[in-house]
Amino acid sequence: MAEQHPQLAQVVGEPFAPVAEIPFVAHPDAEQEIQGVDSAHLRWLFDQAYGHEIRLSHQQELMEDTTTLINARLHEQHVTQEKFRALRRTIRTTKLLSKTVLALFISMAIYRLYKLYGR
Length: 119
Hints:
membrane; about 80% helix; transmembrane helix; rod-shaped; mainly alpha; about 120 residues; single chain
């Protein structure tokens, strides 16, 4: 490979060293740099690396929350409609009962008048 690309041989070095032989040497100021990084910078780096996945999962969570909220509102609407129907039935029943009681009082009054002035 180095024979084909002489610039690559200058940059990487010849021969290529296996990965196991490359020692890990931390930068002498690495610990100070790590301590100097604030959480906002780490969050920014994380967002840059995984931003797309985070946005998708966040959108999915928002969609689930929105669906749950819509379902709750639909249930509340259904319960409210059922309460309204029950209230309407109660009002109709009360009107019918009041008409029945009124008819009973009128018939009792007619009966008393008939008994008092009749025959």
